[in-house]
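BUG: 3D viewer hangs when loading the predicted structure for this chain

Environment: internal workstation, default settings.
Expected: structure renders.
Actual: progress bar stalls at 90%.

Input used:
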Amino acid sequence: MERFEKVRNARTQMAEVLAGVGPATVLERDTSMESIAEQSPTGPGTEKATRIISVTSGKGGVGKTTVSVNLAISMAQLGKKVLLFDGDLGLANINVLLGIIPEHNIYEVMKGRRNLKDIIIPTNYGIDIIAGANGISQLANLSDDQREHFLTGLEDLPGYDVMIIDTGAGVGSNVIGLVMPADDVVVVTTPEPTAITDAYGMIKSIVANRQEKTIKLVVNRVPTAVEAKRVADRLITISSQFLKTNVENLGFIFEENLVQKSIRSQRPHVVLYPGAKSSACMQHVAARLLNREIEQEGEGISGFFSKIFQMVGIGND
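Structure tokens produced before the viewer hung:
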């Protein structure tokens, strides 16, 4: 019973943050889904805890949502059952990138009109999504009964291996509140100086809430692997020096016109252009998160880019 009470407490904090009424405080380590999974017995009749991955950024315009969508699909291609949740409640657009017009969204759940499982949308890409909602000010005034309704919906969700939360940008309480309960936090940045500065600001905000929080870095829209390493090394160094925290270099995504074409066509680039450099990079990032072996040399484009990642020191730990 104690373990289930911990799950309930964790979900209560998540529900309050989504509602805008709870403080963006940190969940203690023993209330994380990872810790609960470790405490849970295994065997027939037990259900593995869903791994929660929050994808966030210090500023908008760095391609965070594009990374979230394609990361979810890449994980599904590796055999995982994935739920993608649009946590940008103010400017939700995951459904736009996928060319989906949702009939229902999270707002209806918060208001008690729908159950959470009723608004899950299956896609043609092997993942399920929960569409976000606009009008975050309305979500800030929920009653206890409405939050309880949302909580019950979380408990009734079908078993997923991974839930990816695409948060809003910035360091607001709603963003931090969706980041802190996650098992893994992926910060997305680009080589632009403003994006690097804001990524550091996000890392600083996370560390201020929880020093030992695991933070992973993806450098998006890079022209070369050398440039990606320069950006990552800079953030890792200053985070270690000034924040006394370790940031893991998860990988990078090459800048390609094909990505913009896929966005305009409202189809994910890992599906539309599976042989592209950016798609190979995304597959590498997904495999790293899942602790999977990357295809080795002589095994096509993924093998080729695996060697590039190794040359710049990614994936050798």
